[in-house]
Amino acid sequence: MAKTQLTILFFSLLLAFAFVSTSAYKNINIVVEGMVYCQSCIYNGTHSLTDAKPIPASEVSVTCKDHENKTSFYNVFESDTGGYFYAQLEGFKMSHYFLDHPLHSCKVKLVSSSLTDCNVATNVNYGLDGAALRYENKKLWGKNYAAIIYAAGPLAFRPAHCSNVIKT
User: Fold this and answer.
1) Could you point out which of 36, 37, 41, 53 has its C-alpha 20 to 30 Å from the C-alpha of 84?
2) Burial of 67 (0-12, 13-18, 19+ CB in 10 A)
3) How many CB atoms lie within 10 A of CB 54?
4) Whole-number percent of the chain with pLDDT over 70
5) How many Å from the N-terminal Cα to the C-terminal Cα in the chain?
6) What is the DSSP-derived secondary structure letter of residue 51?
7) Is residue 86 within 8 Å of residue 33, measured between CB atoms?
8) Residue 131 above 70 pLDDT?
9) Residue from 119, 123, 117 nearest 155 by CA
């Protein structure tokens, strides 16, 4: 009798823990991070970011489309002083657990550069067409915050005019 009660108690606790665990995961934030650079004139026309400099206060957009190809999320995010953007997709919802997953449904595009001498968007890593997200197994877990972090890019603008550049 005691063994049966102990077994029932054990499975009740296990079930309660499973319920608490799954309900805690309902509020996981989705984040996209990346870098925005100014491509060196030497590498203009290539996909190289060698000698590229980060662009502060540049803007990128994140657009997500659902499985019916309707826009389900759109927002513009600004990079920090080091060209890094951390885009928390507040309000992003998945109506289909697989087809609307951020890896399948979201893209990042260049919007604007804060540098007047480096403001022509390039398609390096699909910055014009829309860079797909990459899962790099990066997560943040805290007492009151949980996030799955995806990566995009790096993306780049280039100068409109490059003078006296000799490509070797």
Assistant:
1) 41
2) middle
3) 16
4) 77
5) 85
6) T
7) yes
8) yes
9) 123
Q: Are 36 and 54 a contacting pair, CB within 8 Å?
A: yes
User: Which positions ≥6 away from 91 have C-beta within 8 Å?
Assistant: 73
Amino acid 82 reads G
Cα 27 to Cα 152: distance, rounded to the nearest angstrom: 23
The answer to whether the CB of 79 falls within 8 A of the CB of 57 is yes
Phi (first) and psi of residue 15, to 5 degrees: -65, -40
Any idea what DSSP says for residue 114? Answer: S
Q: What angle do CA 132, 136, 138 make, to 5 degrees?
A: 120
Rg (CA), the chain: 22
* Predicted model pTM: 0.78
For the chain, list the strands marked E by DSSP. 29-38, 53-54, 59-65, 71-78, 84-88, 106-112, 120-121, 131-132, 134-141, 146-151, 155-158
Quote the CA–CA distance of 66 and 47 in Å, as a whole number.
Answer: 30
